């Protein structure tokens, strides 16, 4: 549904050019919810604004629903933007208009809007306000709405022209946690019931856990890592998996003498099986639990555990194989003990 190839965006400045996007490639499957995460300044918002060409990229191509937007004339681009809805961080509602009138706006000014009668626009707006749970607030002005209600109006407005794609630029960052959860449920419902592909920008891992099928990590204007959530959670050395499951730092080499430290990810049927206990019984070893987390990621239960096995890595190759043969993802974090694992821990840290 969205295909981005070698996208670059350079801003001129007095101190020299600033590269906000540096050769970004991104592919978003139809009907998916795709999250782009990263720290402030990573290039996330520039990326999403380049998808609908609110920002014109310096180079590269953007395809949406089979059309190359970067090759269209201004008139053609205006027509294509009608099928790309956008939800903003700060709502961007017109204060002089009611909720219903804000939702009607794209139907008034967009291409083809003149073909709709006032009654048809009103009916469409009321239908969408009902979808987002605000049918009883149709005549309220933005000043009379809470933050969550304003964002719901923004979502209804973004859906007014029946878009292929919904872009969400930090849509929940200005909301409290409870309101954030309700807005995310709404976005997921829109995705599932209306078939709208959602590309969302966020710095909150909770957003990725709640609704995303796939995700990408941006750093310094580049995609550092991307994939489906299932793939990322089982990928060794995945920075996104580390962020989704906060297990803390690996212990210092003096904390546990002669121990191999592993991060083990449980998913699917493995989450309900006592595999660590089986490991301990099978090889008659004491397994140290150093940390654990269980999360629901896009409706799927996933667990991650940091464990310590007695001995150096070479002593535990068979035990690690035991875990992997049973469908677990195992990442060697390092070794502890005098002179045994400092180099390996330093390698992982780097």
From TrEMBL:
Domain of life of the native organism: Bacteria
ABC transporter domain residues: 2-245
Xref: PROSITE patterns: ABC_TRANSPORTER_1 (PS00211), ABC_TRANSPORTER_2 (PS50893)
One MF term in the entry's GO annotations: ATP binding
This protein's UniProt keywords: Amino-acid transport, ATP-binding, Cell membrane, Membrane, Nucleotide-binding, Translocase, Transport
Record protein name field: ATP-binding cassette domain-containing protein
Organism this protein belongs to: Catenulispora subtropica
